[in-house]
Amino acid sequence: MSVMAHISVPADEFKLARTLDDHDSLRIGVERVVPLGEGVVPYLWVTGLPADRARRKLRRDEDVERVAVIDHVENAVLVRVWWTNRRYAFLETLVAVEASCVDGVVRDGIWNLELRFPSRVSLSDFYQECLDHDVTLEVNGIHDSDGRDRSRISAALSDRQYETLRTAFEAGYFAIPREITLKELGDRLGVSDTAASQRIRRGLRRLLAEELSSSR
After folding, report:
1. Residue 86's domain spans which residues?
2. Prediction pTM value
């Protein structure tokens, strides 16, 4: 299951730091559902400047090779951007784990991005790579692609552990009296009762370890 993450990162570690430095009212938003890769966030909405000024300002940015105005609505301008080949550890890591940018806004020098990762493993790999490369970022929230929130505690679980505990809870495994047997739960998950039991125990242990360590 894919995972959504809300992440904040300084512009100087992603894109357009120079454009934002001297214009406090400028706001730039990413056109929704943009795949990352060679065509990184090619369409941007710019507010706070007329179309001609927005284009000139972007063209002076060291990240931008070429820019064209596509459309404008009220006080917002839609532009197509061709980027230079400047390298950023944050961006290269996103591309490496095959993430997609669902939404993003940059203001006051900070990009606030909503990113889709193929799995929680790829999100974890991305986060660790950023730490290894001293990238400054903040994870503001994580949730599954089905819209269900993943708290800090549940984020400690593997996908299998999370799905097992969620299924067990919804099926009444933890109810008193129990509403489903371990074998029935295993059948629902497509695993043996032993495997289901191990996932539950390990998942609960990780939840407890996370909660108890955070409360110290």
Report:
1. 3-145
2. 0.55
